[in-house]
Amino acid sequence: MWQRPLLAGVAIMIAAALYAVWPRNADLAAFEPDAMARLETAMWRAYYERRYAALFRDLYVVSREQYNFSPLDSVRIAFAAARSARLFQPSTSRAGAEVALPSLVTYFSILSAGTRAAFDIDDAARTELAWWQARREAVPPEEYGAIIARVAALVYGIEGADVLQAGRARAQAMAYRDRRGNDISEADWVAIEEQLRTAYGLLKRALVKRRS
Q1: What digits encode the pLDDT tens for the residues 148-186?
Q2: Within 62-140, where are the H helices?
Q3: Which of 88, 108, 145, 204 has a Cα-to-Cα distance from 158 of 20 to 30 A?
Q4: How far is CA 142 from CA 118, 165, 167, in A?
Q5: Residue 44 belongs to what H/E stretch?
Q6: What is the pLDDT of residues 52-106, one digit of tens each?
Q7: How open is the CA angle 51-53-58, to the nearest 5 degrees?
Q8: If we measure between CA atoms, which residue out of 60, 40, 68 comes closest to residue 148?
Q9: For 33, which DSSP code?
């Protein structure tokens, strides 16, 4: 009598495991700009409020729903990205910020499965960390926006005015958040989301142009 429920349970566990690890056709270019803007705004809020579980959750949703990675890979991506952010946050110098680099390398290594062509993973990780640090050092957003654009150029293998403008739009959104600081309001977050929508719209346009 007990064998059938046991076998059914084992079958369910096997099916769940296969679902989690079965390879998907991940595609970093498949994102929807509106969804990305909403999720990134939520991730920024979670980061500055030190709600790392919420940050992990939203990173997972981006990987799973926007990039179509498997559940397992989405967990790995979210963990690596959240860990790098958490390690970077308390650092106070360029040397100290290096502690986040290994996790960023892991992050971009997993992400690379969702690109059309191989890219330099170490270069992408170091460039990502470079813009994080540049923002802290009061580098103008136009300048660290160009570094953000270089990350996109490395990962997607595209360049051009839309990519550069997308990077600078993300930087402007970050600069807006920095100016508001502890006085940031719900209206400010709405404005930031709108700026990020513009940024991801420009990046999506560049990707569509490449494929057409």
Answers
A1: 999 999 999 999 999 999 999 999 999 999 999 999 999
A2: 71-88, 94-97, 101-111, 121-136
A3: 88
A4: 28, 9, 9
A5: helix 33-48
A6: 999 999 999 999 999 999 999 999 999 999 999 999 999 999 999 999 999 999 9
A7: 100
A8: 40
A9: H
